[in-house]
Design goal:
Layout (H helix, E strand, L loop, with lengths): L3 H29 L6 E7 L2 E9 L7 E3 L2 E3 L2 E2 L2 E7 H7 L6 E6 L5 E4 L19
Antiparallel strand pairs: 1-2, 2-6, 3-4, 3-7, 5-6, 7-8
Length: about 130
């Protein structure tokens, strides 16, 4: 029923399958080593609104800076920060869509702000039409 070449075919498929599993496992392993993404969202802090920034740093001793300003954070390697909106506006360019984050000796990276956070706030009129 099986020819002489069929046994060799199964050995080649087995080797290809094993190589594919190893490549797939290596791909998943490298993703697990990546640092968690930095997130931002609005929270209330006392009687004002603050930007909550959650991030990760390699060492708990690493300094955290936002837009070039050192900030005190809560936590260790996984940290968080409540930044008052007045401070964020003073440290950011008008209509900024991101902030610059630096942790330790690592490279600076841009972190997205919530959509429209520092955008236009003066809306003269909004016209909605139904057709």
């Amino acid at each position: 029923m099986f020819g002489a070449g069929d046994g060799a075919h199964y050995g080649t498929m087995d080797l290809a399958f094993r190589l594919g599993v190893m490549v797939l496992a290596a791909g998943f392993g490298s993703g697990a080593m990546a640092a968690p993404a930095t997130t931002t969202h609005l929270v209330t802090c006392g009687d004002q609104t603050c930007l909550m920034v959650n991030g990760y740093r390699q060492q708990r001793e690493d300094v955290v800076a936002i837009n070039g300003h050192r900030v005190a954070v809560e936590g260790g390697r996984n940290w968080r920060l409540r930044l008052p909106m007045a401070t964020l506006r003073a440290w950011s360019a008008p209509y900024a869509r991101s902030l610059v984050l630096n942790t330790g000796e690592g490279p600076e990276r841009e972190v997205s702000l919530p959509i429209g956070l520092l955008g236009h706030t003066d809306l003269a009129a909004l016209e909605v039409r139904v057709r």
